[in-house]
Design brief:
The protein is of the alpha+beta class and 166 residues long. Helices cover 23% and strands 34% of the residues. The strands form 2 sheets. Strands 2-3-8-5-6-7 form a 6-stranded antiparallel beta sheet. The protein starts with a helix and ends with a strand. InterPro entries: Olfactory_marker, Olfactory_marker_sf. One of its GO terms (biological process) is sensory perception of smell. Pfam families: Olfactory_mark.
């Protein structure tokens, strides 16, 4: 197989923050706090250290290959997929819509900066495969990314590599 054909079959998709959806979810939390109301049973509210990210799928027939993740400092990042179509302007995010397993990457404070990030490889493999399965029926998929133990969004680069089938 020539190199040009091999490159055209590999797709690298970057997770991008959806600032509008993140802000809308933050407004829901703020509204509940101001009015003194409680969340609905089963509703999942956005935590202060979380943001909504998205993947846009240019193709629906994908096979998961590899995660590409970098964090320029120490900390922990968890990625939780949202399994259903969700429109926060019309419906609230419910806990039952969250995928298992979640993805977790981290670097400890004592680790040198050039140390590869740690992750739970079996969970990350399964998570990547679930994303590829959902891509068969989706053009877009949403994720909650939580930044913990000193991790910051500005220090994060996250992408997932797929093979596109023709």
């Amino acid at each position: 197989m020539d190199q040009t054909k091999a490159q055209s079959e590999t797709i690298m998709l970057n997770f991008s923050e959806d600032c509008a959806l993140t802000e809308m979810m933050r407004m829901r939390v703020s509204s509940l706090q101001r009015s003194g109301q409680k969340r609905q049973e089963g509703e999942r509210l956005l935590l202060p250290n979380e943001a909504v990210y998205r993947l846009d799928f240019p193709s629906q027939d994908l096979s998961f290959q590899h995660w590409h993740f970098s964090l320029r400092a120490h900390g922990r990042v968890t990625i939780t997929g949202i399994s259903q179509h969700w429109t926060p302007d019309l419906t609230n995010l419910m806990s039952r819509q969250l995928l298992e397993p979640i993805g977790t990457f981290w670097r400890n404070v004592a680790d040198p900066p050039d140390t590869p990030l740690k992750c739970l490889e079996a969970d990350m493999q399964e998570f990547g495969e679930r994303i590829a399965e959902l891509a068969k029926v989706r053009r877009v998929m949403y994720f909650l990314l939580a930044f913990k133990e000193g991790a910051e969004a500005d220090h994060l680069s996250c992408a997932i590599q797929f093979t596109a089938h023709k």
